[in-house]
Amino acid sequence: MTASAAKHWWQRDTTPGYVLIAATLLSFLLLNGPTGEAFHHLLEDQIAGLALGLGEAAHPLNLHLVINDGLMVIFFLYVGLELKRETVEGPFKNPREAAMPMAGALGGMAAPALIYVAINAHAPEYLRGWAIPAATDIAFAVGVLSLLGPRVPGGLRLFLLALAIIDDLGAILVIALFYSTHLAGWALGGAAVTFVVMLLMNRAGVKALAPFWLLGLVLWGFMLLSGVHATIAGVLTAMTVPMRRADGHSPLITAEHALKPWVTFAIMPIFAIANAGVVLHGAGVETLLHPIALGAAAGLVFGKPLGITLATYAASSVMRQPAPADLPKMLGIGMLAGIGFTMSLFIGTLAFGSGELAAPVRFGVLGGSLLSALLGLITLALACRNHPAPIADLGAEEERAEAAGVLEDIDPPGDAKR
User: Fold this and answer.
1) Cβ pair 252, 324 in contact under 8 A
2) The pTM of the whole model exceeds 0.85
């Protein structure tokens, strides 16, 4: 029995994808069945007359807001921890190693955005959604790739993972820069002071996680009041979490592993249930052919593989390094990166809210993601059909390596990595 087969079902790479598919189907059923009206009111009705924020930045407190501005902070905290780990101890610590997936990620964000803008150029009110097709859903993309098993070279899987992680960082920056409104200077100042205190705690050698979570909550409050989207607090908190103690143990990896099941089996499915479904009644051809839906779908299906492939090969030529794979495999990986789902839906919600434009956003993202997944699977299955030997399970290799101390790379006591 292989290491992969010996894993419990909840530990397999494919599981997050299946869970998200189930959550999406449940969202459609809840919205389009007899529970549709009640489910809509559950998400949108104000809770006890409460509001989040102050002044112009205040929003009525409802379940939708709790999920998108509260629970999703934990999702972004998890993503931020992964980003820091990859930067401090992973492949991104070597700029030359990170250059190829970074170029691919930038191309994979620029091309879909340009396609979206070209399709919506005649309607300036829709251009706010330009970043919708620029995002990649890590869980779905890696999960779909794992369906091909050992036929896919290990380096190609790592390239997709690195690409998606950098893509997430780009999406986070986009949210911070372009989807923040009614900025409040005093709250931004409070957030900056809190963040600096957390950095100083790290530098002073504080290794316990509780103080970082407490100040992270304060940081989230300031961000919520500042007008910058509150999820950015999750990423900033992750940047301050200590990487290593003097004895070599990692508070950051401990936090990441503790959060993973909650993110996989609670936060992402809840987000999908609240945001992925769309009311099918009255949604005709005009909804499917809406410029927002066409721009999102075309950006994911065509923009991602074209942008990633062209940018990666350009970087390969400039750096005089071999590309991660041949053209068919690169196109296949680019197609899988077109699975936007969670991040694309999230950006779509920030851009257009949950009103009448939510339907074309969701149709475009879901349709584009589904088509990207199918095309990517078919392309890679054909391109990798002659791949010779099966590769060992990556997760098992990492566990064995860390147990043997290969990933530890411990500095002398008193000089722990931050």
Assistant:
1) no
2) no
